[in-house]
Write a structure and sequence with these properties.
Length: about 180
């Protein structure tokens, strides 16, 4: 798994290649985020890992919980929850007490850039990535934020679900290889 700073660095390079750095400051947002992330922690230690298991600290429970938007309700013994962890700039999906995945983001006034989505391989095939993205997009809509889908998974989700296309600014859709109209 790549470190967050490495993933953000890749996104910053993509922003520069797309010419977004000069417009709307999107590249500046990501560049600053990469600097802050690198200063905050070493890139190789993105998650607390204990014997191959992601460990969720008790502090996660204090973060803002976001209702999971799902087409497949979880079993009673396996509750799912999405929490916003702003000090790590990510939304995390929890299954029971374990972090099953996350979506890395960067915020700017009126915008949110989704950088990277990752689901722990132990939770593959359960639709958690889609639930996480659907919830993140619903949350962005509720907060009135425009979405910059740098993450390929988020971009493909939006392309497959055109009801979310309006979240991406019309003048930036072509740069994300998204249709002009839904």
């Amino acid at each position: 798994m790549r470190g967050v700073a490495q993933v953000v660095g890749i996104a910053v390079d993509a922003v520069r290649r797309a010419g977004l750095e000069e417009q709307d400051g999107a590249g500046g947002i990501l560049t600053q985020a990469a600097r802050e992330d690198a200063a905050r922690r070493p890139a190789a230690h993105d998650d607390h890992v204990e014997h191959g298991r992601i460990v969720v600290s008790g502090a996660v429970r204090r973060h803002r919980r976001i209702p999971v938007i799902t087409d497949h309700p979880a079993a009673d013994h396996d509750p799912r929850m999405v929490v916003d962890v702003p000090e790590r700039s990510r939304l995390e999906i929890l299954v029971g007490d374990e972090t099953a995945g996350f979506i890395e983001y960067r915020r700017a006034p009126g915008r949110i850039a989704f950088i990277h989505t990752s689901i722990d391989p132990r939770f593959d095939g359960q639709g958690l990535g889609s639930e996480l993205v659907r919830t993140a997009l619903a949350n962005a809509r509720t907060e009135g934020l425009a979405v910059l889908p740098f993450c390929p998974f988020v971009r493909s989700y939006i392309a497959a679900h055109p009801e979310h296309l309006d979240l991406v600014p019309a003048d930036m859709r072509a740069r994300f290889a998204l249709p002009a109209h839904g």
